[in-house]
Amino acid sequence: MEQKGLHIFEYQGTGVRRVVESGDWFVGIKNYKLANDLRTLETLERHLLSDEVFILLEGECVLVVADATENLTVQATKMERDKVYCVTKGVWHTTILNEQCKLILVENRNTAEENSEILGLSSELIKKIHAAITDKAIGGICAS
Description:
Jelly Rolls; RmlC_Cupin_sf; RmlC-like_jellyroll; RmlC-like cupin domain
């Protein structure tokens, strides 16, 4: 939908779609996709040049950040509506969504594979992520 001087966007598909790009940043809408399901979790990512901001619009989401060094520390945070969550550049992270989840994300416009890294998860780290989420009793996210 467009009006003079106003652009309105929505996205109902799966995964992420950039809806606004301006200057050095973009805004995207992120919806559930199988890769962000706790039952199929295989990777974490980190962006080397950009913080990434998430805002929960609907559904349930757990933001996972991890220190993927020898210590393998994991922190799981159940996101709440009306709060802004910022993952700082260089931090391993992922979002675990339920099927009704819709997020807004904001990051540098040039964020891409070339300046990001993907970490394949060991079975030990997957277990730690599951435990961190289960310990918080996050209902709509827990694997059945």
